[in-house]
Amino acid sequence: MKRRDFITLLGGAAATWPLVTRAQERVKRPRVGFLMHLTPGDPDAMARVAGFLQGLQELGWATDRNIQIDYRWAAGQDELYRKYAVELVALQPDVLVTTVTDSVRALQRATRTIPIVFTSVIDPVGSGLITSLSHPGGNATGFSLFEFGISGKWLELLKQIAPSVTRVAVLRDSASTRGVGQFAAIQANASSFGVDLLPLDKQEGSDIDRAIGAFAGRAGSGLIVTSSPTALINRDLIIKLTAQHRLPAIYPFRNFATGGGLTSYGPDLIDPHRRAAAYVDRILKGEKPADLPVQAPTKYERVINLKTAKTLGLEIPATLLATADEVIE
Known about the structure:
By secondary structure, the chain is an alpha/beta fold. The protein folds into two domains: about 30-145 and about 270-300, 3-Layer(aba) Sandwich (Rossmann fold), CATH 3.40.50; about 150-265 and about 300-329, 3-Layer(aba) Sandwich (Rossmann fold). Helices cover about 45% and strands about 20% of the residues. It is built from 13 helices and twelve strands. It has helices at about 5-25, 45-60, 80-90, 100-110, 150-160, 175-190, 205-215, 230-235, 235-245, 255-260, 270-285, 305-310, 320-325, and strands spanning about 30-35, 70-75, 95-100, 115-120, 140-145, 165-170, 195-200, 220-225, 250, 265, 300-305, 325-329. The termini are far apart. About 40% of the residues are buried.
């Protein structure tokens, strides 16, 4: 190649490089809006987000390279669900990711077109979020937290670990179908275990403090904490109160037991966030949430805090210890 031709070619290529660079900059990275029901300082919230990011990374997505994620933290407050749902929709994301029933409902009020992937919803059909588990039918799909039947298991396990319990308070959210459904499942087993139930429909920390304090004054008392954003947000307070009043209690998730609670039985909360990444990936590649079935948990775990049991004067049967997924010494 002659020198003059080479210089001409080089000059033409140099002229096109800025155009190529600008074109690459104009390529829109997929955008994901993430509405979390917890607070950004909550270790459990951080673990869930980490699970989601890990799932994305395994599928070739990275926030520093080819995807953008906008986070909002609602702390279980209805007004924040509404506010942040509107904010995220205004950003025009390609997919919205969220957790519980209230946050899904807030997002669906804000949009019926942007796909929504949820991770921790109890009874999504009964809550009116989707048409059916196999064919959700709208703009939302995802992962159910558990079926109501597991709630009946909580009473059985509490009686095994604290046989002297004859009256049990059930901390629930009565304003939601999940709260009503969980209590109904527990109630169905109450008579066979000779237990009287009392629902505690409290939503604020001060109310929970007064309600548990009033209930725990009699012998033979126990507590079941059902799954709700309120319980998660007030986790440390509830654990503190059960210790203060020497109240045997069972909780829906392992972070209660690892945080000092007596025992827990429920699904792994990180796993559905990791699996949600696959649904985000499929939606970004053209699939519709209406055609993606809602999936059930794949793993349940039971944790026993032996240190708390000893503090309460409870002798845990060896058979229970042997079958537990984790025993905290």
